[in-house]
Write a structure and sequence with these properties.
The chain is an alpha/beta fold. It is about 30% helix and about 30% strand. Helix 2 packs across helix 4.
Length: about 230
């Protein structure tokens, strides 16, 4: 038995089913529309509306299929905003799976295939120049052992859900990883609206808002880090 298999979601885009976690990487209501709703519109575009960025840093928990990274590059290159993208994943997908994903063909851009391939072929634990305006750093490490050495403008928290990866939705991870990653104004989004996670974010200087979720999910979380830097 293989650990992963492709699935077609309701909007025609692929997702991946993980045997170990008994979960799909995206909503079966539509992988593409979920990523656009949760991470691009509610996260990245929201951040761009708050500040004028010529350069932006995104940190993602769970590189997974690479869809969020591809979509971020696509929308930012159209706005002439350079991108530093950082992603954590302890169990990267094999090339046999990533090569079959249909995301580039849905994107009306001549470089989409090459960029998507470069995202997955980039080496781990070092920075790779994917395009002139897109730097990617992938970290193959368990988040419980990760010590951030950067601050991000946007955080995509896209781990498997609390039912599958409960240690990743705790106050300990917020204090160890998410707070050090954030600066005042950092925007975090996740598809989850779990009460414990929401309250733990609020207890650690995030202003948390429940907003409408993507198709198939009533609510999701957007949080803005509000702690003032000490002088």
């Amino acid at each position: 038995m293989t650990s992963w298999s492709l699935r077609i979601t309701a909007d025609g885009s692929h997702t991946v089913f993980s045997e170990p976690y008994q979960s799909t990487y995206h909503s079966m209501h539509g992988a593409w529309q979920e990523s656009m709703h949760v991470f691009i519109h509610a996260g990245l575009f929201f951040a761009l509306d708050q500040f004028r960025y010529n350069h932006i840093s995104i940190w993602e928990m769970g590189l997974g299929t690479g869809l969020n990274a591809l979509l971020s590059w696509h929308v930012l290159q159209a706005k002439d905003i350079t991108l530093d993208y950082h992603a954590l994943d302890i169990h990267p997908l094999p090339p046999s799976i990533t090569a079959a994903l249909n995301y580039p063909e849905r994107m009306n851009h001549p470089d989409a295939y090459n960029v998507f391939e470069a995202i997955h072929q980039a080496p781990w634990d070092r920075t790779t120049l994917i395009t002139q305006d897109f730097n990617l750093t992938k970290y193959r490490i368990d988040i419980t052992s990760y010590q951030p050495a950067l601050q991000a403008d946007v955080i995509f928290y896209d781990a498997f859900g609390p039912g599958s990866q409960s240690p990743l939705w705790t106050e300990k991870i917020i204090q160890q990883v998410l707070c050090p990653l954030a600066h005042p104004g950092t925007v975090l989004t996740t598809y989850s609206s779990q009460g414990l996670f929401r309250r733990a974010l609020a207890a650690n200087n995030f202003l948390v808002t429940k907003i409408p979720g993507p198709p198939g999910k009533r609510e999701m979380i957007r949080a803005i880090y509000s702690r003032k830097e000490t002088q």
